[in-house]
Amino acid sequence: MLKALHRRWPPGRSRARSWSRSRLLRPLLALSLAAGPAGAEEMPLSAAAPGSAAAEAPQGSGAATATASSVDVDQAIDETVSSWDLGLVELMGLVAAAVASAFSLRKIRGTSTPYSLPVSLAGLKLATGALTAFLGLMLMRGNFVPGLSALDSSAQILAWAIVFGYSQQIFTRFIDRQAQSVLDSVGGHGAYPHATRDPVVIAAQVVVALQTIVSRQIDLTKAPAIVTLGIIQGGNRYNIIPEEVKLTGTIRTFDPAMRLDIHDRIKRTAENIAEAGGATATVKIEFGNVVTYNDPALTQRMGPTLKRVAGPEHWFPNGRVTTTSEDFADYQQKVPGIFFFLGITPKGADPKTVAPNHSPRFFADEAALPVGVRALSNLAVDYLAGGK
Fold this sequence. Notes:
mainly alpha, 12 helices, 4 strands
């Protein structure tokens, strides 16, 4: 029996239905009961009498004038009120709320799924629109809304009913956000991928698509660029489709304009692929280090010092461009700087085959430390001795 129920209601769908019942259907029932018992006589469609509601009395008969006016107004209202007035006001509120619901639901991604959330959301908004239209007009008639108290025509009453009905969006907007979060976090059973949205498959598509940014969309003859994804996190069991998958990586560029262009392309690619799969993608890019660039004049001036310290056979001044990054570049943004590499490959090993840094097999030969100390101290002495 339990297995049958599990097959019938996948976990993600059951979660959405549960949220729909507790957060939407119960308030909808309460609003319907609140809007229903009001009597039609409480809401005359027109506040003005069809004839003369305030008849004049002879001069000097003020008391008679007050009594006559009171009787005439009450009689005019009784003659004006129709049993359909309340229904018409609430209908205007429903129409306005329906328009607001259409705009609101279009912004909620994932409402095309078979969950009952869209229907429940629309029902809540319609009932709320009918109630706000009625209550709003009551507040106006009671002068509770400063500056809004004139209800002297049927057209004016109906217009305000539409305004108040549409304004229900103010109260139901936070429900929209909760509904979106529920739809975004719906996982599911691996045996029922059609009942959810699979972020693993979407993430795999994003991984492949991001590699085409550098290989097919960027002019690499201008400057090198790299997009690398080093972390993929998602799921905790082989037969459960997770709620989300996180991708983390790094971007390496040498051109500032290309850097921003790649950022835009990554964001657009991830968001569009996720949307095509009925999901959402949130892209956050943090700016890292700027390009490490050696000042040409300073490099030419201090090159002989490094050559003397390391020895001519260990001096390689024309190093190729590398896509590693250094926060030393922040200093170079303020003053001219020079950055050089210190060889730490063990003696007798081939530099081309040893493990690089960030590898678990990386090894730094500390015999290079004295060379580094001599290089930095000689650079400082020669620079100060030569003046600026």
